[in-house]
Amino acid sequence: MKTSLDYLIAAFVATALVVFGSNALASPITNWSIDDFTTAHFSYVNFSGLTTDSPVVGDGTDQNADYGAINASFPTVSLLDGQSLILSGSMTISGAKTTGERTGLFFGILYEPGTVGNPVDHNGWLGYAADSSNDNGGVVSGDEGSGRIFARDVDGTDFNTTTWLSVGAGRGVEVANDPQADTFADGTYDLMFKVTRNGSNAVVSASIVGTGGTTYSDVLGPATVSDPTQLTLDFNRVGLWATDLDAEQVTYSGMDLSLVPEPTTVVLLGLGLLTLIGARRNRR
């Protein structure tokens, strides 16, 4: 026969399931830096709002937001089994000239080991990034017309640790592919990038959904990363790179990083459940 304590335990478990499904350590990202490769090769691009969660690339003049890469650091997160790290927000493009160009967004959650105990590391950044580009008529040959998730390879040597952009020259391994021919145009697009720990593996997914000239929907993954040369479960950076848009301005809004569930929530709920079970055994 069930006692009131049994019902209390059942209620506690139900509450825990709700909390686990919804509780998140959500933090606005407000410390953006201009990527070194951008300043070296695209010094004409203007940036603003880098100390807010809504950074802006371009000043509204013709093609000033053609190319703009930024990144932001955060205290290192080491994912526990079952935890997810989620980058979210939106991107609004204005003044885009999308004819005859490969256009795309490259964004992700990363780990830069050179900032953690090894400042002379030049093997590039680990982590995962999505590339959502379109061929816009097939003008440029190669990887256009694609939506892909890359796992960053520890052996990459094409750029040193001051930049996170490249996935070429052995720097990245494609782990998911969704051919994408939609065209970025003026409009607003919701962004999401998610990494979940599943045992010793990482499960990665991403999406870009919005309405510009046409309804745009690029949903990537989930893809499982297990190769030790590509795998990381530690993260301390996020990156955004809108490329070849020929736009006047690109505005990101409400950029946010969430950890689901919070580590303290896991511990407190576990201790609470153990206490209730212990009380039940003592009563018996």
Please specify the SSE layout and strand pairing.
Blueprint (H helix, E strand, L loop, with lengths): L3 H19 L2 E4 L3 E3 L1 H6 L5 E2 L7 E2 L9 E12 L5 E11 L8 E9 L14 E9 L12 E6 L19 E6 L9 E12 L2 E11 L3 E11 L8 E10 L5 E12 L2 H21 L1
Antiparallel strand pairs: 1-15, 2-5, 3-4, 4-15, 5-14, 6-11, 6-15, 7-8, 7-14, 8-9, 9-10, 11-12, 12-13
- Name of the CATH architecture of the largest domain: Sandwich
- Average pLDDT confidence is 77
CATH class of the largest domain: Mainly Beta
By secondary-structure content and strand pairing, the structural class works out as alpha+beta
The number of domains is 2
Helix content: 10-25%
Q: What is CATH's topology name of the largest domain? A: Jelly Rolls
Low-confidence stretches: 8-24, 116-120, 136-144, 264-270
Shape: globular
Radius of gyration: 21 Å
- Quaternary state reads single chain
Distance between the termini: 12 Å
The proportion of strand residues reads 35-45%
Main sheet summary: 8 strands, antiparallel
User: How large is the count of helical segments?
Assistant: 3
How many beta-strand runs?
A: 15
Helix-strand topology string: HEEHEEEEEEEEEEEEEH
